[in-house]
Design a protein that fits this description.
Residues 45-111 are annotated as: Disordered. The chain has 111 residues and is mostly helical. It has one domain. It has helices at residues 6-20, 24-63, 86-110.
Length: 111
């Protein structure tokens, strides 16, 4: 990508003013600033969560015995399902929300 000089930036600013109007530009700038702040805080939280997960795993490994004793496998034991990924949890929540909306709409129709 080439470097933008002063003339290019002025043309871009002129186009923005023509498209959105001078009154809307400050609102848009505030909205973009808020969005960036929210995005940065969320990514910081994700990094903190990742660091917490790594420290917990490291502590668990340090506390684990040096030579664990093998346990005989029993076919009657039921293994727990693996934890759901964030996407799967989000999908399930969306399905629940859709069901709740549908039931609320039916209740409104009955009333």
């Amino acid at each position: 990508m080439s470097n933008l000089g002063v003339p290019e930036l002025l043309i871009i600013a002129l186009v923005l003013v023509l498209l959105f109007g001078a009154k809307k530009l400050p609102e848009m700038a505030r909205g973009v600033g808020r969005s960036l702040r929210i995005f940065k805080s969320e990514t910081a939280k994700l990094r903190d969560d990742d660091e917490d997960t790594h420290t917990v795993q490291a502590q668990a490994q340090a506390q684990a015995p040096a030579q664990p004793q093998p346990q005989p496998a029993q076919p009657s034991q039921i293994q727990a399902a693996p934890a759901l990924s964030a996407e799967e949890q989000a999908r399930q929540l969306e399905e629940q929300a859709a069901r709740l909306r549908a039931s609320a709409a039916q209740a409104d129709k009955r009333a």
